[in-house]
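Page 47, continued from p. 46.
Same chain as before, 268 aa.
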Amino acid sequence: MSGRLHRKATSAALGAYTGVVAFFSALPLLVLIPVSLNSKAVVRLPEDGISFQWYVNVFTSTTFPQAFVTSGLIALVSTSASLAIGSVAAWVLTRNRFRGVAAVEAFLISPLLLARIIYGVAMLILLTQAGLIRTLPGLILAHIVIVVPYVVRIVGSTLIGIPGSLEEASEVLGANQARTFLRVTVPLLLPGLAAAAIFGFITSFDEFTMSVFLTGPRTMTLPVEIFKYAELVVNPSVAAASVMMILGTLLGALLLEKTVGLERVLKT
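Result:
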């Protein structure tokens, strides 16, 4: 009985500790909500009532909508390309054991291990030499570099969970490799592909550290535009735009949870 009580007390203590840590981690983000509703043009908690004028201002008096479209286009194209590249790479890594497979996998996921600012400087030099600096194709290429590792890990994790016996059974029954892949593997892989697409899109859309080196007047992404706007103008429009980005990220997280589960994604 004492052991059971001890386990319950330990579990309750860990739960309380986790709750406190989560609260203080989210507190800076939660503060943005009342700040974005301030009726005055000051970045502080509202004292004289609330107003949605700054949300309207985001769409009418700033360049945020244009930056939103640019970020969305970059995220959509880079995620689509990364799905094609990363899925094939994940297939090769999980279905073929060849010499050097560990080195290839380490190379593909290296953007997850190194500071993003390093890739920002490296891509700045590379795209400058290629004549693609501050262009949409250049930004898309740079974002593919950081999205592919997530696709490789998520799709690879899903492929590992698909029993090879199902594919073998399909081939034994007369289906060729292409038919087996389309009729057996792809349907089982769809949750992983959906999770990789959502996670990749969020990663690309929210990317700031690398993008700040590569953007220009005609290729400004939303996170970089918010940063530069905050340097010049001090009003709650920045908080309103940030709240909308947070809500978009939360929506993506909910979709991830519904498709494959956040716990599974975070373990990859």
